[in-house]
Design goal:
Elements lengths: L1 H28 L10 E7 L14 E7 L51 E6 L15 E8 L11 E20 L5 E11 L1 H13 L1 E7 L12 E2 H6 L24
Antiparallel strand pairs: 1-2, 3-6, 4-5, 4-7, 5-6, 5-8
Length: about 260
């Protein structure tokens, strides 16, 4: 009796396993329903990599399919983009966003990158002043001056002072000047973004003093309050005007004549 029951049970198990295998294979062989394609729209895309300062022309942009959410500022009108300058790098197949272009009529080149109300000021430097070539477009720098103050105390020697802090660099490259023999020679130039008031200060400082440049972290926007220093205090160990032991040696402020 036990053997008969075991045989029936074994037969039932084999039949169930065979049925399950046949069912599995039939389901796997059935074609799967195609997934619905995500809806796409036609927007303007970059046809190639576009560098900063270039002006959009025919062949730089093209219409293309874009699936998903359309980026803010994208457009589907090619005619609205031609002639506008590129202010940030755009790579091939990327959407052309309005915020990455100069306003209409502004053109291309460096001028298109200057925000409203600001100015571009070129500072002539050398390799050491330019932090050995590490100053590039997008860097942030501080400008220091060194020289002698008009009517100041000559006993202090050369003075050094941080003039302007946290300036954005628009470009760093070379210009050509003429040497005493009239031959063109390359001169490193760093162009920084300044306000009109800062441009006035730099205009005088660049002609009357020596300008140095220090590189800073672009995420560091803190303005340090530095007292400046003089050669006398450097040799004396004080370090700066604030720690100078002889306060009487510091230059007196210039008094403006009173108007009657």
């Amino acid at each position: 009796m036990n053997k008969r029951f075991a045989g029936v049970l074994t037969f039932a198990f084999v039949v169930a396993a065979a049925g399950g295998l046949i069912t599995y294979r039939s389901l796997m062989g059935r074609p799967q329903p195609a997934k619905a394609a995500a809806p796409s729209v036609q927007i303007v895309l970059a046809a190639k990599d576009l560098e900063v300062g270039s002006v959009l022309k025919e062949g730089d942009v093209q219409m293309g399919d874009w699936a998903g959410t359309v980026p803010v500022g994208a457009t589907n009108k090619l005619e609205d983009l031609k002639g506008r300058g590129v202010t940030t790098p755009i790579y091939a197949k990327e959407p052309i966003i309005d915020s990455r272009l100069a306003p209409k009529g502004a053109g291309g080149g460096l001028a298109a990158m200057i925000p409203h109300g600001m100015r571009a000021f070129a500072v002539q430097v050398n390799e050491i002043v330019g932090v050995a070539g590490f100053v590039t477009a997008g860097s942030h720098v501080d400008l220091l001056i060194q020289g002698n103050t008009p009517g100041g105390n000559g006993n202090l020697g050369t003075l050094a002072k941080t003039l302007i802090q946290n300036l954005e660099v628009l470009s760093a490259g070379q210009d050509f000047k003429k040497d005493p023999e009239g031959k063109p020679v390359p001169v490193p130039v760093v162009t920084v973004l300044v306000t009109p008031e800062q441009a006035e200060v730099l205009s005088l400082a660049s002609s009357q003093t020596s300008i140095r440049m220090t590189l800073r972290n672009p995420l560091d926007h803190d303005i340090a309050k530095t007292p400046g220093t003089a050669m006398k205090f450097v040799w004396g160990g004080a370090g700066n005007l604030k720690n100078a032991p002889n306060a009487d040696d510091t230059p007196a402020p210039v008094q403006r004549p009173r108007t009657p």
